[in-house]
Amino acid sequence: MQLFEDKQHAGAGTLTLGVLPLQPERARLLAAGLDPGPIENTQDYFIMRLRDPDDNLIVFAGAEKS
């Protein structure tokens, strides 16, 4: 767990979950009626972002796309 102060984003949070592989998880979220973003290639790993109705950010992180 990491706690930090960010006054610009007060009232919203970020949760990062490690998920392998990301592609089936993205398909599961889409089938559940959610709208995850695309799988993105960052410097160290692949991520997928999803915002909840309260504007909290959920980041799914994985070492491989599929």
Quick rundown:
15% of the residues lie in helices and 29% in strands. By secondary structure, it is an alpha+beta fold.
Explain what you see.
It is a single chain. Strand 3 and strand 4 (57-62) form a beta hairpin. The chain is globular. It has 1 helix and 4 strands; from the N terminus they run βαβββ. With 66 residues, it is α+β, with helices and mostly antiparallel strands. It has a single domain, classed as Roll (2,3-Dihydroxybiphenyl 1,2-Dioxygenase, domain 1). The termini are far apart. It has one helix spanning 22-31; strands at 14-18, 40-41, 46-51, 57-62. The protein is 15% helix and 29% strand. The longest helix has 10 residues, at 22-31.
Layout of SSEs?
Blueprint (H helix, E strand, L loop, with lengths): L13 E5 L3 H10 L8 E2 L4 E6 L5 E6 L4
Parallel strand pairs: 1-4
Antiparallel strand pairs: 2-3, 3-4
What are its keywords?
alpha+beta, 29% strand, 15% helix, single chain, 66 residues, four-stranded mixed sheet, globular, 2,3-Dihydroxybiphenyl 1,2-Dioxygenase, domain 1
Helix content: 10-25%
Q: Element order, helices and strands? A: EHEEE
Going by helix content, strand content and strand pairing, the class is alpha+beta
Poorly predicted ranges: none
Mean pLDDT: 86
Query: Got a strand count?
Result: 4
Name of the top-level CATH class: Alpha Beta
| Whole-number tally of structural domains | 1
C-alpha end-to-end distance: 27 Å
- Strands of the widest sheet, in order across it, are 1-4-3-2
CATH structural architecture: Roll
Biggest beta sheet summary: 4 strands, mixed
- What is the radius of gyration? 13 Å
Question: At the third CATH level, what is the topology name?
Answer: 2,3-Dihydroxybiphenyl 1,2-Dioxygenase, domain 1
